[in-house]
């Protein structure tokens, strides 16, 4: 842990969009932490202009759609959790939905084979985008006019922004797939390779954003933009229709809340599994003495791994869009059920996913990026938003100039067939028209004595709930600083495959103890990109941007 912190201090910052990306800020008036320095800065500028945290979140989301095209988006979807200073809470679902013409077996070919190539890239992989509907559904909670909130994104698309080395390399590495999956020339491909210092200009995207500024959500879901999306679908064999776009609605959900020790956790309910998994995992470890062995001890890590295994077994069986399937949330989160789930936990001995299946319950009476914002009044927003894979379907919506998602792969395309994150599922998450695919995204706010204490979240597919889980436990139980909680190596178990994924830098001695207990260990390069804002005892805000990428904190 110390070595990690030292490396970060030595590096101190990265540069993106020509801006120095600060990793840690302490501030009193407001903080934004996101995956890109320009997006954090744009959100901060809105706070300085008198916007609240929701306003700043809308600007940050829209700016990410321009400067972070791999995951920031208007062609994808996501979830927003907010806790407002007046006591109101918000859980906003702007997850993509299956098109009307989608069907359960649409990714099974004539030989019966599940075609993950169809569900993961190109036109057929796209769900109906939710982000713009989400931003307009959030807007009544803000203060400033929408046209002011979207203008920074328009300017950055119109005038361009300067690429750094990793951004240029990402575009170059995806060039062939871009060419394969697009039917018109796109801003992301040019005749010579991109290099650091080049400016990426997105004129078509700027025009789309201007239509949204001038016509509201209809500037996306109807008229010219909708026509471009549907024309692209027709050219490439996708399913999204004008009616799918016209009828798409973001949904306010009842926020998922549960206590952990003396804290209150506010997080996303279905159709994200993330919040429920987080609650299950925290409750499964809360009273177990192994936790007292402390941070990175084999005993505590084993306990957390076994909680992760059991929660993910439940995910595969029970969880899906609550408008289509009844998810037994109350039972799955009940102390009695979760105590039962841990009865066969044996300290010092690996469990087995063959023996541990989803729990038995009685019938009951349901590439991604994360950012956090807090303003001077204590309004907090936590948003995770995604195209699913890096650049989503890698298909631009024709002249509309933005990447469409490949979120359909988050459905269970065939029982037992893993999606791109290795997650499997059954009927609860099978494809149906208009259904929202199960997510793992876990935007979260933790309160202490009813007041904001921590805002947290991360990208990373199925590793999202386990990373948020570890971040909370690292801070609350192991007393790590927010800098360390963000940057220490994470570990991950998702029931199947029955293995523990260890992030680079995970302590060798703990890994050796876990191997001795019988765990199969897999070494991974990098897990997630956790962003955190912690409200300190003196009332100041500490924003910590993940040290793994170009992420940046901004505050004043
Ligand atoms: O909703 C989900 O769970 C996934 N579509 C998230 C994808 C993701 O985090 C990719 N980023 N690393």
UniProtKB/TrEMBL annotation:
The residues the record assigns to binding L-glutamate are: 95, 386-388, 410, 439-440, 461
- Which reactions is this enzyme annotated as catalysing? an S-substituted glutathione + H2O = an S-substituted L-cysteinylglycine + L-glutamate; an N-terminal (5-L-glutamyl)-[peptide] + an alpha-amino acid = 5-L-glutamyl amino acid + an N-terminal L-alpha-aminoacyl-[peptide]; glutathione + H2O = L-cysteinylglycine + L-glutamate
PTM annotation, UniProt: Cleaved by autocatalysis into a large and a small subunit.
Q: Which organism is it from?
A: Dinghuibacter silviterrae
Q: Name one Pfam family in it.
A: G_glu_transpept
* Protein name per the record: Glutathione hydrolase proenzyme
Q: Which residues form the signal peptide?
A: 1-21
What keywords are assigned to this protein? Answer: Acyltransferase, Glutathione biosynthesis, Hydrolase, Signal, Transferase, Zymogen
This protein's source sits in the domain of life called Bacteria
Q: How does it assemble?
A: This enzyme consists of two polypeptide chains, which are synthesized in precursor form from a single polypeptide.
Indicate yes or no for the key word Transferase: yes
Cross-referenced PANTHER family, in alphabetical order?
Answer: GLUTATHIONE HYDROLASE, GLUTATHIONE HYDROLASE PROENZYME
Family annotation (Gene3D superfamilies): 1.10.246.130, 3.60.20.40
Residue ranges annotated as transmembrane are: none
Q: Which family does it belong to?
A: Belongs to the gamma-glutamyltransferase family.
Task: Identify the EC number(s).
Answer: 2.3.2.2, 3.4.19.13
Recorded GO MF terms:
glutathione hydrolase activity; leukotriene C4 gamma-glutamyl transferase activity
Query: Where along the chain is the active site annotated?
Result: 368
Q: Which GO terms of type biological process are on file?
A: glutathione biosynthetic process; glutathione catabolic process
Pathway involvement?
A: Sulfur metabolism; glutathione metabolism
**Keyword Transit peptide appears in the UniProt entry:** no
Give the matching InterPro entries. GGT_bact, GGT_lsub, GGT_peptidase, GGT_ssub_C, Ntn_hydrolases_N
């Amino acid at each position: 842990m110390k070595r990690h912190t030292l490396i970060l201090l030595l590096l101190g910052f990265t540069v993106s969009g020509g801006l120095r990306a600060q990793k840690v800020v302490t501030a009193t008036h407001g903080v934004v932490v996101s995956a890109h320095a320009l997006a954090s800065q744009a959100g901060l500028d809105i706070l300085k202009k008198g916007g609240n945290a929701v306003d700043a979140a809308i600007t940050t989301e829209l700016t990410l759609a321009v400067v972070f095209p791999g995951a920031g988006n208007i062609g994808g979807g996501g979830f927003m959790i907010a806790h407002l200073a007046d006591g109101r809470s918000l859980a906003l679902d702007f997850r993509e939905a299956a098109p009307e013409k989608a069907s359960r077996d649409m990714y099974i070919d004539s030989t019966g084979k599940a075609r993950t190539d169809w569900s993961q890239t190109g036109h057929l992989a796209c769900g109906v985008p939710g982000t713009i509907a989400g931003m307009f559904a959030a807007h009544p909670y803000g203060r400033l006019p929408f046209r002011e909130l979207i203008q920074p994104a328009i300017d950055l698309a119109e005038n361009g922004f300067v690429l750094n080395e990793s951004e240029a390399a990402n575009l170059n590495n995806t060039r062939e797939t871009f060419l394969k999956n697009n039917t018109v020339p796109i801003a992301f491909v040019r005749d010579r390779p991109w290099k650091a210092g080049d400016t990426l200009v997105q004129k078509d995207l700027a025009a789309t954003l201007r239509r949204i500024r001038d016509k509201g959500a209809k500037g996306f879901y109807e008229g010219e933009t909708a026509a471009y999306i549907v024309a692209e679908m027709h050219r490439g064999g996708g399913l999204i229709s004008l009616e799918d776009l016209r009828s798409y609605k973001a949904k306010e959900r009842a926020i998922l809340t549960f206590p952990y020790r003396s804290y209150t956790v506010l997080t996303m309910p279905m159709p994200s599994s993330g919040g429920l998994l987080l609650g299950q995992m925290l409750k499964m470890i809360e009273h177990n003495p192994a936790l007292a062995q402390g941070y990175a001890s084999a005993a505590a890590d084993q306990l957390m791994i076994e909680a992760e295994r059991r929660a993910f077994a439940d995910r595969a069986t029970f969880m899906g869009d609550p408008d289509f399937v009844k998810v037994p949330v109350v039972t799955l989160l009940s102390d009695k059920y979760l105590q039962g789930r841990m009865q066969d936990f044996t300290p010092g001995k690996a469990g087995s996913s063959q023996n541990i299946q989803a729990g038995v319950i009685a019938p009951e009476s349901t590439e991604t990026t994360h950012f956090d914002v807090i303003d001077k009044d204590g309004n907090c927003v936590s948003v995770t938003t995604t195209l699913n894979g890096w650049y989503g379907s890698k298909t631009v919506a024709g002249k509309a100039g933005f990447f469409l998602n490949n979120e359909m792969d988050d459905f269970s395309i065939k029982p037992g067939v893993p999606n791109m994150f290795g997650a499997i599922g059954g009927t609860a998450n099978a494809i149906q028209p208009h259904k929202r695919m199960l997510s793992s995204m876990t935007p979260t706010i933790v309160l202490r004595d009813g007041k904001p204490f921590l805002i947290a979240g991360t990208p990373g597919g199925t590793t999202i709930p386990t990373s948020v889980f570890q971040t909370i436990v690292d801070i609350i139980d192991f007393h790590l600083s927010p800098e360390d909680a963000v940057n220490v190596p994470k570990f991950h178990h998702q029931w199947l495959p029955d293995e523990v994924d260890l992030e680079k830098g995970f302590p060798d001695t703990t890994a050796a103890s876990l191997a001795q207990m019988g765990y199969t260990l897999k070494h991974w390069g990098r897990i997630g990109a956790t962003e955190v804002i912690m409200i300190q005892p003196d009332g100041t805000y500490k924003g910590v941007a993940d040290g793994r990428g170009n992420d940046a904190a901004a505050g004043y």
